[in-house]
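Friendly challenge for the regulars: who can give me the structure tokens for this chain first? No prize, just bragging rights.
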Amino acid sequence: MSKELRIIILAAGKGTRMNSDLPKVLHKLNGKALLDFVLDESELLNPKETILVVGFKKEQVISHTQHRANLKYATQMEQLGTGHAVLQTADLLKNKEGHILILYGDVPNIKESTLRPIIDDHLINNRDLTLITAEIDDPTGYGRIIRDKNDNLLKIVEEKDCTDDERKIKEWNPGIYIFKIPEVFEILNNIKTNNASKEYYLTDAIGLAQQSTMEIKAIKIANSNEVIGVNTADQLEVLES
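First reply, four minutes later:
Bragging rights claimed.
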């Protein structure tokens, strides 16, 4: 059983709603690039290696980060969704064992102190998949976490598919996962693009994992601010205030 931890950080997006030609992850929050917050916390976890998935204006992102140790790059030429982005790391992780933590370059408030106990719990139990959840007052637009009477993860329901009761649930899925290698790629290769955007969503991997014999656990964190992403200039302004 390998307890090696690797980290994948998704940083390929254009960030159309930022109204800027700059790669989204290089926008500054209080004078520091969004991506640097995530990389700094990632390094505190001492991973075996960190893989940055780059795409839009990747040369700028690589130039900004190439001074960092233990960092590799995978390229997502077309932005075809989060599941597709993680698949671009398959060659780098071929024949590797252990586990991968999936983070986002536009989620700057995530903390090592929050991630570490969850990672430890995942590794000690040699789990196939652990997902981080959070509660927010207004989860509009997010997939809801549905649990059974024993508090185990039952399913994730996208808002458009929620019943009236499910829509009232405040626990949501920010998309931060710890997967076992190579099982993650077996799952991702089976994701379909049956959605309006024709993209491969990482969220769909959870449903496929549940249909398999994989062991899954959803762990809720106390501070939802740690997993809020930046999608617009207004959201960036709110974080700076």
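The radius of gyration is 17 Å. Helices lie at 34-44, 58-65, 82-87, 112-124, 164-167, 183-188, 203-211, 233-240. Your move, everyone else.
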